């Protein structure tokens, strides 16, 4: 019950901002679809491209990451509301999970529901007034599933950034990821330089490497590389999010234990 109370508090304190966000999204879709339908009607084109499939990833990733980055800004790092948050009748875990679950799971679900329901009404209006084909947002395509899985991974990174940085959480997290990407790229090049020759039998000192598609297997079919690819997927989809969530929780626990000193 305490967890539900904390989760409901999170929703109530941000319902105005979330309502404005949802209305803005709906208006953008409505204006774009109306303009597209008018253009198609007067050019004689019976079909028109919808905004939904291209609009959803931007809202999911950019909107979700910004929302996640700001999730602790009014509690852990705000002098006005810090004491109120610390004195809530809930454990650090409950406070952390309320924010983490809402941004990791509730936000994507709510976004899908808003876009699906809004697209139904918008497409019905376009069909009624302009005779445009009914092409609503379809959340059941495989691309949406892949985007949700990727969102869960990177949301955990921004959740960690929200607890580590005191200001400019989103910008600092992006910059940290940029630096980390450079370091990982250099390490990856070093790794490939050392281990790829051991797997394929190609000399690491060879300046030119040529492949014959008729005689050389695809990289994914090399047994050694399949192991690394599988290991990489486990680290990416399971280990990385778990590490970020646990580390972020301990940061919240530290703030709770020290009364945000």
From TrEMBL:
It comes from the Bacteria. The chain crosses the membrane at residues 18-39, 51-73, 105-128, 148-166, 173-196, 234-252. Keywords: Membrane, Transmembrane, Transmembrane helix. This is ABC-2 family transporter protein. It comes from Sphaerochaeta pleomorpha (strain ATCC BAA-1885 / DSM 22778 / Grapes).
